[in-house]
């Protein structure tokens, strides 16, 4: 076999191998493109400067505000995600504000009626108590607000209490705090 014939066969083999490699790599990329463009990764709803109003028999129970919102599905569960945080205001039956909670990030697990609030969470009761933490949950079904993280609470008269495993009812008027410490003021 001549030198030209051997060079031709080697070149032909290299071209065939490169072609097979390109085809196989394209197949993987096509699968990736299909996964990226499928609807399963897309939000069901999204918006900016959103206000939610939750009512029961035309009585406002609470309102939620968010600069950015998206509704997503995770393991067949609908989740409202507030990536840049927001504010929740709870109302009493007479229409007055019961409490407010602000956070830099929040999730609402819709079916569970559970809110997860993270990063610089500040809860304020209608009596003026302020609770600061990095993680707080509001369980609407159980009518409770709680955290297993460090909590700092400032009472309406300026006393400061600190601890972990904070728990209160939905009106923030019965508060328990474990491993607490703080400064209290006594009247003469």
Helix-strand blueprint:
Elements: H1 3-37, E1 45-56, E2 59-74, E3 77-82, E4 86-91, E5 97-103, E6 105-109, E7 114-125, E8 130-139, E9 144-147, E10 151-154, E11 160-169, E12 175-183
Antiparallel strand pairs: 1-2, 2-3, 2-4, 3-6, 4-5, 5-7, 6-7, 7-8, 8-9, 8-10, 9-11, 10-11, 11-12
Would you mind describing this structure in some detail?
The structure is a single chain. The protein is α+β, with helices and mostly antiparallel strands and about 190 residues long. It folds into 2 domains: about 5-35; about 45-180, Lipopolysaccharide (LPS) transport protein A like domain (lipopolysaccharide transport protein A fold), CATH 2.60.450.10. Helix content is about 20%, strand content about 55%. It contains 1 helix and 12 strands. It has one helix at about 5-35; strands at about 45-55, 60-75, 75-80, 85-90, 95-105, 105-110, 115-125, 130-140, 145, 150-155, 160-170, 175-185. Strands 1, 2, 3, 4, 5, 6, 7, 8, 9, 10, 11 and 12 form a 12-stranded antiparallel beta sheet that branches. A hairpin with a 4-residue loop joins β6 and β7 (about 115-125). The longest helix is centred in the N-terminal third of the chain and has 35 residues, at about 5-35. The chain is elongated, with a radius of gyration of 28 Å. The N and C termini lie far apart (about 115 Å).
């Amino acid at each position: 076999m001549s030198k030209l014939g051997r060079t031709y066969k080697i070149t032909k083999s290299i071209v065939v191998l490169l072609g097979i490699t390109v085809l196989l790599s394209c197949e993987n990329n096509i699968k990736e493109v299909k996964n990226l463009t499928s609807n399963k990764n897309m939000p069901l709803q999204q918006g900016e400067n959103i206000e939610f109003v939750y009512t029961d028999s035309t009585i406002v129970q609470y309102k939620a505000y968010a600069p950015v919102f998206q509704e997503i599905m995770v393991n067949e569960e609908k989740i409202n995600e507030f990536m840049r945080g927001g504010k929740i205001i709870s109302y009493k039956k007479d229409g007055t504000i019961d409490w407010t909670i602000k956070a830099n990030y929040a999730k609402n697990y819709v079916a569970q009626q559970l809110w997860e609030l993270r990063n610089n969470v500040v809860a304020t009761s209608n009596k003026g108590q302020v609770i600061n933490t990095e993680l707080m949950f509001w369980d609407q079904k159980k009518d409770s607000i709680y955290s297993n993280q460090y909590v700092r609470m400032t009472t309406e008269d300026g006393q400061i209490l600190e601890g972990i495993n904070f728990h209160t009812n939905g009106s923030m008027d019965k508060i328990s705090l474990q491993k607490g410490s703080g400064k209290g003021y006594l009247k003469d």
